[in-house]
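During the second half of the funding period, the structural biology subgroup turned its attention to how the target accommodates small molecules. The most pressing case was inosinic acid, which had performed well in the primary screen but for which no bound structure existed. We therefore specified the complex as follows and requested a full 3D prediction, including the ligand pose.
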Amino acid sequence: MSNATSPSKEVQLSAATHHACVVGMGWGDEGKGKIVDLLAGEFDVVVRFNGGANAGHTVRIGSDSFALHLLPSGVLRDKAVSVIGPGVVVDPVALVEEIEGLESRGIDLSGRLMISDRAHLVMPYHKLEDRLRDSGAQGKKIGTTAKGIGPCYAEKMLRSSAFRMVDLVHLERQAERLKAVCDRKRAILTAMGADDASLAGGEVEFEQIRATLESTRQKLSRFVAETTAWLDDAVCKGRQLLFESANGMLLDIDHGTFPYVTASHTGLNGVPAGAGVSPHLVRRCVGVSKAYATRVGNGPFPSELMDERGERIREVGREYGTTTGRARRCGWLDAVSLRQTKLLGGVTEIAMMHMDTLSGMDEVGICTGYHLRGETLRSIPADAEDYAAVEPEFEMLPGWKDDVSGVTQFDALPAEARQYVQRVEELVGAPITMVSVGPERNQTIHRS
Ligand code: IMP
């Protein structure tokens, strides 16, 4: 584990305007991975600050496709250092698999990856608990990714039974506590309905868990560091930091569509605590949204298309989960929720993804308002049942026929596509500075 010195505040402030954050403006899967990968070329450090292996970022480089879950998308740029911050929950087994997967493709992370010693560990029993809780027998079925995210964050809040990366590094000091926690977990999970068959994977077996942790310890220890002081030092030296959010603002634990949300802060609100930096550091925040909306898992989705138009978007846009393979629900872009996430996520500009997917549709819709029991709502209601009952209002715009996947200049887009982008800007109230027309890095229209 490494340590670093602390710089002066004056130097931090002078560098403040260079840093940026990328957040999702919907229910995840907006295409943040591509935007982070694109921007990462201009940054020295890419930092993940929330979530865990529930996230799924696909980055296409030429004919190669990389599916990343825990590693920041910046790992595919050789100059950037990637940091997994204290607010991330790390499944050590999944992380080792991801690192080895990249190594087998010739990508060496030595000296380019740091994992905070404060980051919490997702343990095997968290994943089982996630499955049991989300079976529907324990309350509302959220439709989680079953990666143990909620139970791990809950354990973190409980504190006494939680394990962190620093504990993995000093595993020998944790044996007694780990044994006690495993015994307790067996009783709790059995009371929750786990039978011998569901415990057969060794989720609460002390010896098995210790052996698994020991093998991940050998692989991960060299990356574990005191990242907070290191980031402070990097800022002082004028390095530019890019913060990469996992999941989306509508999944934020406090501001999302509760209870159908994830367990972390997913916008700029999550950066100071989850990365360990000053709240005044980041001024530029790129909100990523598709040209339409998608959602995986349960929960209300007012602009959802339950007809062949939704199916068409799913097939053309390849809307199947990177993490779970689940088919995503698809619908029209929702300007009401985007206005809300622009505000809460601290968004200063928007990257609009998958413009090519909408080509060929006769008309394209934008949800411009919600009505509930005769009232017009200004924002998403707190009660999920109310949200499920809202009547969406749509504005329909003419679609565009031409394939736009080769377009590189905004002016070269069909007039209808330009009109669509400009109308979304007006309705949401933020400039759309990037329009993505395909998965490749060069399939991106940059607007000033
Ligand atoms: P969890 O994060 O696994 O607890 O899942 C909670 C909710 O967030 C479920 O509806 C998941 O489908 C959703 N979710 C979590 N991460 C992502 C993501 O990266 N993309 C899309 N949905 C996600």
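Two results from this model are relevant to the next phase. Residues 175-191 form the longest helix (17 residues). The chain has three domains: 7-117+224-285, 120-219, 289-446.
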